[in-house]
Amino acid sequence: MAFVARRLGFALLIIIPPLFDIFPVMQMGFIINCNLAICAFNIYTFSFTSKAMNFIEIFNEICNLIISIFLFSMGRISDGEQLYISGLRCNYFIIFMFVFNVGFIMVQAAQDCITKCNRRRKI
User: Fold this and answer.
1) Residue 111, Cβ neighbours under 10 Å: how many?
2) How is 67-91 classified by DSSP, letter by letter?
3) The pTM is what?
4) Sign of CA dihedral 19, 22, 27, 29
5) Of 95, 76, 96, which is closest to residue 86 (Cα–Cα)?
6) How far is CA 110 from the centre of its chain?
7) Contact 5, 34 (CB under 8 A)
């Protein structure tokens, strides 16, 4: 339910600010606080059944928080070259997060395959 509420909050952040002249700083503050709340919720409840899935979910929420902070700081930079470097670092971090998630999924798939092959051999 918390994930649906977060998506709804992000959608409202796109629709509402132009109507009421809400500052972008308030939008970023909401996004950062929402990421913190979801991360705390995941750490507190461990909503998934496996330990590995809980770990990757917490990792993703922390990465989303770091990316949000990157974006918040990029809004304060006025120098073009500094903005380019910050954006490049943010992109590298997103690529790292993507590769880590794909690697995690591959390892989980390999473990599941090995487990199923061992079960078939025992029968």
Assistant:
1) 11
2) HHHHHHHHTT---HHHHHHHHHHHH
3) 0.71
4) negative
5) 76
6) 24
7) no
Q: Locate tokens 């954006």: which residue?
A: 87
Question: Which residues have a Cβ under 8 Å from the Cβ of 42 and sit 6 or more positions away?
Answer: 54, 57, 58, 61
Q: Retrieve residue 78's tokens.
A: 């006025």
Token duo for residue 87: 């954006």
Q: Distance between CA 77 and CA 33 in Å, rounded?
A: 21
Structure tokens at 5: 């509420």
Residue 21 region, left (φ>0) first, then alpha (ψ -120 to 50), else beta? left
Q: Which residues of 18-54 are buried (b: 16+ CB within 10 A; e: fewer)?
A: eeeeeeeeebbebbbebbeebbeebeeeeeeeeeeeb
Over the stretch 40-56, which tens digit does the pLDDT of each residue have? 888 888 877 888 888 88
| Predicted local distance difference test score (pLDDT) of residue 123 | 62
Q: Are 66 and 96 in contact (CB under 8 A)?
A: no
